[in-house]
């Protein structure tokens, strides 16, 4: 069975997980980019079945995701967690849809391309029914790494992330907002979505601990970077940290490349690269910050400087809206690539 999308003037699109943090942004982005939709199917858990959601001036009723949800669907955008993807993405692909999956369920499968359109667009066409959207922190980083890797191959990356509450979904954003209100009202703080109070704190722990002392989020950055960049020799050491910011992830990155990359070369390459903007004027207090980047499509890079501690090293700061470029926008850009051929 061929999994390539048949060329049409408009497509039947399903969104699994439409009531979640990423699902909501999927709808915003499809509308903003005028994605050619014929029929739209909105899917979530049985808890949300019957809920009404507007899209492009029309009201839709959310349906409970089931094995029969994908008949006549061309493109299925999944954002409903790894276990839901594991169960339903193969069913959707078998029914003839091309699945673009936001979860971590299939990212490292050999048969599943892991795609960031600015980095490895050709991989999108090698799918067998499922394409994986990478981890959000990794997407934001590789958009900046790619133009630098083209100047001189990157050998090593050290990165510390400053990941917003929305990375933990709707419940993460809600908990940070609730804690703010509770603190003002002198009430006990609810701590459910994160392992500690996030308000007025930073938590150096995202996803499950691994045997090597890193977390699963950190190991996703290690493995996914190599797969997306098509270079298994790149070594990534990361510390992923949750910070009390509602939306947009920040990352302090140091790279070591085969040959030196000057600040000027880096700035010029990043300036020209798609999906990223240089915002870098330290003396005038101008650098990327989550408050400014939240809601934007492009990632922003600043604080570009020669690293003082590593050989052939360059240090910089990248911020991206992880619900957009780190999730829904990247997935919609993959869908746009598929329908462009
Ligand atoms: N938040 C982020 O920054 C990013 C998230 N992702 C990934 O995207 C996915 C969704 O994340 P996010 O939007 O943040 O999470 P949310 O918790 O905000 O939303 C989860 C969504 O999945 C639906 N869902 C949950 N269980 C089921 C089920 N059994 N069957 C059908 N639908 C179900 C929920 O429906 P209901 O409302 O009915 O419960 C809801 O629509 C995850 O895999 C996450 O790892 C990827 C990149 C970034
Ligand atoms: N990276 C997200 C979590 C997430 O959704 O990751 P993944 O898509 O790799 O499961 C965060 O900030 O918490």
TrEMBL record:
Its EC number is 1.2.1.11. NADP(+) binds at residues 19-22, 47-48, 166-167, 322. Pathway: Amino-acid biosynthesis; L-methionine biosynthesis via de novo pathway; L-homoserine from L-aspartate: step 2/3; Amino-acid biosynthesis; L-threonine biosynthesis; L-threonine from L-aspartate: step 2/5; Amino-acid biosynthesis; L-lysine biosynthesis via DAP pathway; (S)-tetrahydrodipicolinate from L-aspartate: step 2/4. Keywords: Amino-acid biosynthesis, Diaminopimelate biosynthesis, Lysine biosynthesis, Methionine biosynthesis, NADP, Oxidoreductase, Threonine biosynthesis. GO terms for biological process: 'de novo' L-methionine biosynthetic process; diaminopimelate biosynthetic process; isoleucine biosynthetic process; lysine biosynthetic process via diaminopimelate; threonine biosynthetic process. It comes from the Bacteria. Substrate binds at residues 163, 242. InterPro entries: Asp_semialdehyde_DH, Asp_semialdehyde_DH_beta, NAD(P)-bd_dom_sf, Semialdehyde_DH_NAD-bd, Semialdhyde_DH_dimer_dom. Phosphate binds at residue 107. The active site is at 136 (acyl-thioester intermediate), 249 (proton acceptor). Residues 12-127 form the Semialdehyde dehydrogenase NAD-binding domain. GO terms for molecular function: aspartate-semialdehyde dehydrogenase activity; NAD binding; NADP binding; protein dimerization activity. It catalyses: L-aspartate 4-semialdehyde + phosphate + NADP(+) = 4-phospho-L-aspartate + NADPH + H(+). Catalyzes the NADPH-dependent formation of L-aspartate-semialdehyde (L-ASA) by the reductive dephosphorylation of L-aspartyl-4-phosphate. Belongs to the aspartate-semialdehyde dehydrogenase family. Homodimer. This is Aspartate-semialdehyde dehydrogenase. It comes from Desulfurispira natronophila. The gene is asd.
């Amino acid at each position: 069975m061929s999994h390539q999308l048949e060329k049409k003037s408009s497509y039947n699109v399903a969104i699994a997980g439409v009531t979640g943090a990423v699902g909501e942004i999927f709808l915003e982005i499809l509308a903003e980019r005028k994605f050619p939709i014929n029929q739209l199917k909105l899917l979530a858990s049985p808890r949300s079945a019957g809920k009404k959601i507007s899209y492009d001036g029309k009201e839709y009723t959310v349906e409970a995701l089931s094995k029969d949800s994908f008949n006549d669907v061309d493109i299925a955008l999944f954002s409903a967690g790894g276990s839901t993807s594991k169960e339903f993405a193969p069913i959707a692909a078998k029914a003839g849809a091309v699945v673009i999956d936001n979860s971590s369920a299939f990212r490292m499968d050999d048969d599943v391309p892991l795609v960031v359109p600015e980095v490895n667009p050709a991989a999108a066409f090698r799918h067998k029914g499922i394409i994986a959207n990478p981890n959000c922190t990794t997407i934001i980083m590789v958009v900046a790494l790619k133009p630098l890797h083209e100047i001189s191959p990157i050998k090593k990356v050290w990165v510390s992330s400053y990941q917003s509450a929305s990375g933990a979904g709707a419940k993460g954003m809600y908990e940070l907002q609730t804690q703010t209100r509770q603190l003002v009202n002198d009430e006990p703080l609810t701590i459910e979505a994160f392992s500690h109070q996030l308000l007025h704190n930073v938590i150096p722990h995202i996803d499950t601990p691994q045997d090597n002392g890193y977390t699963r989020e950190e190991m996703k950055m290690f493995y996914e970077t190599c797969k997306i960049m098509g270079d298994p020799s790149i070594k990534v050491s990361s510390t992923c940290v949750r910070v009390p910011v509602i939306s947009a992830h920040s990352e302090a990155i140091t790279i070591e490349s085969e040959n030196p990359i000057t600040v000027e070369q880096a700035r010029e390459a990043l300036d020209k690269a798609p999906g990223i903007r240089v915002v870098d004027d330290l003396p005038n207090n101008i650098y990327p910050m989550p408050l400014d980047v939240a809601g934007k499509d492009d990632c922003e890079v600043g604080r570009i400087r020669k690293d003082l501690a590593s050989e052939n090293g360059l240090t910089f700061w990248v911020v991206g809206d992880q619900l957009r470029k780190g999730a829904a926008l990247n997935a919609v850009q993959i869908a746009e690539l598929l329908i462009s051929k």
